[in-house]
Amino acid sequence: MSALSNIYGEVRELPLAATLPAVAVGAPFQQYICDACGYIYDEAVGDADSGLAAGTRFDDIPDDWYCPLCGVTKSDFTLYEAPNIEALRARSGSAAPVALRGGTPGVLIVGGGRAGWQMAEALRALDAALPITLVSACAADVYDKPLLSVAMARQMDPGTLVKETGADAAKRLTVRLLAHTDAVRICPDTRSLRTTRGTLRYDQLVLAHGAQAALPPALPATRVWRINHLGAYQRLRAALGDSPKDVVIVGAGLIGSELANDLALGGHRIALLDVMAQPLARWPGEAVGAPLLDAWKDLPIRFVGGVQVAGVDKIGDKYRVATACGQKFAADQVIAAAGLATPPRLAQSAGLAWDNGIAVDAATLQTSDPRIHALGDCITIAGQASRYIEPIGRQARAIAAHLCGREPAPYEAKPAVVRVKTTTHPMTLH
Ligand code: FE
């Protein structure tokens, strides 16, 4: 065995094979993609968090290594070559220009996050000529959202998190992108979507606009951060600046615990509040709260369990968070991390069935309108949301097969494997 130290100084034993490359020295480095979440393992870069040095060949990675983003294991990775639209077009035998086939509007996707882009990729993989339009409220830049939880530990500048700009992704996939455009309402009768940049027609509509941090009345939107996308995260990091700050995080679930861990590693003083007695209490069978608190004992994290937040006051340029039992916490910044909720407005405008989120068919992910599908954080199946990264790729492929008239590839909801990126004590929950 040989030992490799990762950036946190933890030492991980690697099998001897890891030191004896099976691949010819000098062979070009290759990339492997996680079929579950789209994370790409690049042999040239390695995976420092798992102790895999730059240059570690995929074949030399231990079998129990897991995807650093979503937690599936090595067997769920396949060799990755970036899709080439010309090759795809030649294979599909379609010469029609993408935007002009029969003058049809094609598929319209609402949402420029992972779900929206995975949807565009899955459609394009099946049909080189299908007109695809993607509407996004932001720039639709492509990034790995789970990295927002570990950016400080990895000393990543928030500006370097973008993997590919929205404009470049649109070009690569020959997608018409309307960035910085809000979807306002759906008119199912005319198969059109009203946006802040005019009305768009569709043959098929796919909703991939995600969810937002839920805001109980005690947490007014003007006084708390909701960190559910890159833009908000970048603004929070700018507001925190370079000197240690007092941060109150309300909610010690996955996002709250990961952010507490990461901001504390960045030197900020954290008060982490939750109604439950321990962090990550949604996984009671896993007994993860106590070991996590133990791993945090040398970090500036104060966990306060069993409290209900009653209000947030603004005092000068600071905040004061009060609990129902009378405790008070001073803060430079307050973050709401008490769960996610799907904004209902767009679905309501189309009269779509709603069940704690956009209700979709479990196999086809079709909404109550046969011309509208939905995937990702905005949907529920039998009333249950599953807001993890792993199912999104499979959902996109199921919808793409349905829309492109291919052999059905029904989506199968399965228990999520969740990688908790609390870097001082990473865990995989089932
Ligand atoms: Fe993954």
Give an overview in words.
This protein is 18% helix and 24% strand. The protein has helices at residues 85-92, 114-126, 166-172, 230-240, 254-265, 289-295, 345-349, 390-403, and strands at 2-5, 11-14, 31-34, 40-42, 77-80, 107-110, 132-135, 142-143, 162-164, 176-178, 183-187, 192-195, 198-201, 204-207, 212-213, 246-250, 269-273, 301-304, 309-315, 318-323, 328-331, 333-336, 340-341, 358-359, 372-374, 379-380, 418-420, 427-429. It has a five-stranded parallel beta sheet with strand order 10-7-6-14-25, with helices on one face. A four-stranded parallel beta sheet has the order 18-17-16-22, with helices on one face. A three-stranded antiparallel beta sheet has the order 4-3-5, with no helix packed on it. The model is unreliable at 1-22 and 95-100 (pLDDT under 50). α2 crosses α8 (390-403). It has three domains: 2-80, Rubrerythrin, domain 2; 97-211 and 342-417, FAD/NAD(P)-binding domain; 230-339, FAD/NAD(P)-binding domain, CATH 3.50.50. With 430 residues, it is α/β, with parallel strands linked by helices. A hairpin with a 5-residue loop joins β3 (31-34) and β4 (40-42). The two termini are 29 Å apart. It contains eight helices and 28 strands.
